[in-house]
Amino acid sequence: DTEVTQTPKHLVMGMTNKKSLKCEQHMGHRAMYWYKQKAKKPPELMFVYSYEKLSINESVPSRFSPECPNSSLLNLHLHALQPEDSALYLCASSQDGTVNTDTQYFGPGTRLTVL
Amino acid sequence: AQRVTQPEKLLSVFKGAPVELKCNYSYSGSPELFWYVQYSRQRLQLLLRHISRESIKGFTADLNKGETSFHLKKPFAQEEDSAMYYCALSGVGGFKTIFGAGTRLFVKA
């Protein structure tokens, strides 16, 4: 399996809901990333996990809570989101867990709409 | 501050014409630069990276540290090259990746 998969593809949620995004890879990669991409904008880094430990948190609001339960799985827990959080959420992984000079492999994204 | 600049939002060329997508960066360390591409209805994927010095789908990019540039070039554009292209700077402060704003390339028949 040489792909990063993300579920769900689409998610609509209210501002009081709690939901989770899931990302999975079975390439043995040791770094995993969450990005947020607004329409017609580049991806913006949110979080990086290296060897299942949080390495970077780009000052993301606490209503976004990442989790890396094992080396293949990355979750993003969502709670009390705002309409401006509506975006495409991309997951990526890269082989080297020590530095980010490797190619990143992206998932197809989850299109999130917050009502 | 670290920054990646792609000055053109949209680049439109005719099939068979040369194409150059510009990328300039600002980074005091040793840059690791990439070009990622997103074709219609496909995921973001690597096109090439400066360290490998490859030619992928006829595209090349040379890192010019003096001009802090990493322009993407192809001598003869094809219609299937139409896509969104992002220049990216990696390894900033460990794992951080900074993407440029992107250039949409449109190759006309």
Helices, strands, pairings?
The complex is a heterodimer of chains A (115) and B (109).
Chain A: E1 4-7, E2 10-13, E3 18-25, E4 31-37, E5 44-50, E6 53-57, E7 64-70, E8 73-79, E9 87-94, E10 105-106, E11 110-114
Parallel strand pairs in A: 2-11
Antiparallel strand pairs in A: 1-3, 3-8, 4-5, 4-9, 5-6, 7-8, 9-10, 9-11
Chain B: E1 3-5, E2 10-14, E3 19-21, E4 24-26, E5 32-38, E6 45-49, E7 60-61, E8 72-74, E9 83-92, E10 96-99, E11 103-108
Question: What this model shows, in words?
Answer:
The complex is a heterodimer of chains A (115) and B (109). Chain A is mostly beta strands and 115 residues long. Chain A contains no helices and eleven strands. In chain A, the strands form two sheets. In chain A, strands 2, 4, 5, 6, 9, 10 and 11 form a seven-stranded mixed β-sheet that branches. In chain A, strands 1-3-8-7 form a four-stranded antiparallel β-sheet, with no helix packed on it. In chain A, β5 (44-50) and β6 (53-57) form a beta hairpin. Chain A starts with a strand and ends with a strand. Chain B is mainly β. In chain B, 0% of the residues lie in helices and 47% in strands. Chain B has strands spanning 3-5, 10-14, 19-21, 24-26, 32-38, 45-49, 60-61, 72-74, 83-92, 96-99, 103-108. Chain B is globular and about 45 Å long. The mean pLDDT of chain B is 92. Chains A and B meet through β5 and β10 of A and β5, β6, β9 and β10 of B.
